[in-house]
Amino acid sequence: MPLLDVKNVTLTFGGLTAIRDLSFHVNEGEILTVIGPNGAGKTSLFNCISGFYHPTSGEINFAGTPILKLQPHKRTALGLGRTFQNLRLFPNLSAEENVMAGAHCRTESGFFASMVRLPSQVREEKAVREKANQWLEFVGLPGIGRRQAKNLPYGAQRRLEIARAMASQPKLLLLDEPAAGLNPAEKEDLMGLIRKIRDTGVTPLLIEHDMGLVMRISSRLVVLDHGEKLTEGLPDDVRNNPLVIEAYLGKEEEEGA
Predict the structure, then answer these.
(1) Are 31 and 194 in contact (CB under 8 A)?
(2) Could you give the number of structural domains in the chain?
(3) Secondary structure of residue 150 in the 3-state scheme
(4) Which of 39, 52, 127, 164 has the maximal Cβ count within 10 Å?
(5) For residues 148 and 165, what is the distance between their CA atoms, to the nearest angstrom?
């Protein structure tokens, strides 16, 4: 059974169809990347999976559970983690506090315990803080827990968002253009981190524009164009597919015109 199964999903906004009859699946333990030109519907797809958009029709099943009627926080509790194309950190909080926020769905202390600082809440907060710093070290950011997120370099902020997503203990991690804005050395490090995440038992699902990174790290590719699935398959097969080349570069006769 696939970890994620997207079946015949269509998403419309008024007269605009952002996604049309899209089906694909993600197997546990693979690294699947969704690619396509700008406006192909990639981020709209992630928004449907994570619960920020509601498809007009179709089904999405996660670990065998239908999730379309679940709110985003319920999907997170099931094991869906996510980062965003545009960073969504809490800039005035420390790095460790940002990661602790990601772990909120796994904490047990209620509002009353937090208000009166019951011993159980104090112990849990200490454990969550320690785990947050472990996640910072996992993504390559040791020793920065007390620094404000807004004062970190851009590449470190990207990693911080991944650490926050990992703190929610996901089974599937949606990474929306994780290499955007990174230099070549940072992209190399990112590929190592994504493989490291996969090796912990978390399945990465990526949207990415950097084709060098995509071809080196992906187990399989799904290609979208104008909201429809153009093709899917192994990286080498997709790389040489005439339909994919046309979607990215246009037809030769169009260039000549």
Answers:
(1) yes
(2) 2
(3) helix
(4) 164
(5) 18
pTM: 0.89
Q: Are residues 6 and 42 in contact, defined by beta-carbon separation less than 8 angstroms?
A: no
**What domain range includes position 129?**
89-169
User: 167 and 98 in contact (C-beta within 8 Å)?
Assistant: no
Can you tell me which residue has the tokens 């079946």? 7
Among candidates 105, 103, 167, 107, which has minimal Cα distance to 137? 167
- pLDDT by residue, tens only, the chain of 257 residues: 899 999 999 999 988 999 999 999 999 999 999 999 888 999 999 999 999 999 999 999 999 999 999 999 999 999 999 998 888 899 999 999 999 988 876 665 544 344 446 566 667 778 888 999 999 999 999 999 999 999 999 999 999 999 999 999 999 999 999 999 999 999 999 999 999 999 999 999 999 999 999 999 999 999 999 999 999 999 999 988 888 888 876 654 444 43
Q: Do the domain assignments include residue 152? A: yes
Closest residue by Cα to residue 2 from 21, 19, 24, 31: 24
Of 139, 169, 199, the residue that ends a domain is 169
Which residue type is seen at 197?
I
